[in-house]
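User: I've been trying to design a sequence by hand for this structure and keep getting stuck. Would you show me what you'd pick, starting by listing the structure so we're on the same page?

Assistant: Good idea, let's start from the same input. This is the structure you sent:
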């Protein structure tokens, strides 16, 4: 027991640094896990945004085509309206 106490008194700094390094290693491993989780969440968000963007692009295209169709119809309806008014 005296040998252990004497050894601890002599090398307490070494043991303290070893414990400190173990603590820092554990903290860094925890941070690495958190960063990987955030990276996975970011990739998922990018995928979702890409999907939403493609839906919006196709919707914009459909709206544009519908606008052209309505514009064509409105001129025809205006012509029919004028003809009906004449009668």
């Amino acid at each position: 027991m005296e040998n252990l106490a004497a050894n601890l008194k002599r090398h307490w700094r070494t043991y303290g640094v070893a414990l400190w390094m173990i603590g820092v290693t554990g903290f860094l491993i925890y941070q690495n896990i958190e960063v990987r989780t955030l990276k996975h969440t970011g990739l998922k968000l990018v995928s979702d945004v890409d999907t939403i963007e493609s839906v919006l692009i196709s919707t914009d295209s459909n709206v544009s085509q519908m606008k052209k169709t309505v514009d064509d119809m409105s001129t025809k309806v205006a012509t029919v309206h004028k003809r009906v008014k004449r009668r």
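That's my pick for every position. To get oriented when you compare it with your attempt: Helices lie at 2-86. The mean pLDDT is 89.
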